[in-house]
Write a sequence for this structure.
């Protein structure tokens, strides 16, 4: 796998762990998982899902997909859909952060409509990752060494050393969930 795709895939692995924990936490609101749902944990996970992809993951994928779209055999429909997803998912993340922020302030439980929205969000995020994995396979097959070089140059221009340092510092402060059912928090430490 091209190193850039490996990096994006490791972002996906981290994102999936976050999503499993988010789903398990939200499930506590209706008794599917034991324990009391922790809104702080939910907000911490949403903080990650909101910040990291928006700043360091989606922009790289957008550059990659724009190049892939120039290939005559590329799946134009799938590429346009994942690009649109980036905006939709970012808007959904913002909405959930706002909702859970208000629930924390009011110290109230999530109602059925919020739980449904979380489930929708969870499903959409996961299917987005699956769609992108298919496009990554296409990129491996279709892009030439020259095209990869142009993509890397563009990404380097977008993600300068300062941005890389900022990303690495953000990740260093992140604690991973132990498992989807873990009650251990997935927390970005700076939120604590
Ligand atoms: Fe994406
Ligand atoms: Fe992605």
């Amino acid at each position: 796998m091209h190193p850039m795709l490996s990096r994006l895939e490791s972002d996906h692995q981290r994102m999936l762990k976050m999503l499993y924990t988010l789903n398990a936490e939200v499930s506590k609101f209706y008794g599917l998982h034991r324990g009391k749902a922790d809104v702080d944990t939910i907000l911490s996970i949403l903080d990650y899902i909101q910040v990291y992809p928006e700043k360091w993951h989606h922009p790289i994928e957008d550059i990659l997909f724009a190049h892939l779209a120039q290939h005559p055999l590329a799946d134009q429909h799938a590429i346009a859909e994942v690009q649109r997803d980036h905006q939709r998912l970012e808007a959904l993340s913002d909405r959930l952060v706002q909702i859970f922020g208000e629930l924390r302030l009011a110290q109230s439980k999530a109602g059925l409509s919020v739980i449904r929205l979380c489930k929708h969000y969870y499903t959409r995020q996961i299917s987005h990752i699956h769609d992108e994995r298919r496009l990554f396979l296409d990129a491996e097959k279709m892009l030439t060494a020259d095209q990869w070089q142009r993509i890397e140059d563009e990404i380097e221009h977008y993600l300068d050393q300062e941005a890389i340092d900022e990303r690495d510092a953000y990740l260093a402060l992140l604690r991973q969930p132990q498992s989807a059912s873990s009650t251990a928090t997935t927390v970005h430490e700076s939120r604590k």
About this structure: Residues 8, 12, 57, 61, 129, 132 surround fe (ii) ion (ligand 2) (CB under 6 Å). The chain has one domain: 3-176. Residues 3-176 form a domain with the Four Helix Bundle (Hemerythrin (Met), subunit A) fold (CATH 1.20.120.520). The CA atoms of residues 173 and 191 lie 10 Å apart.
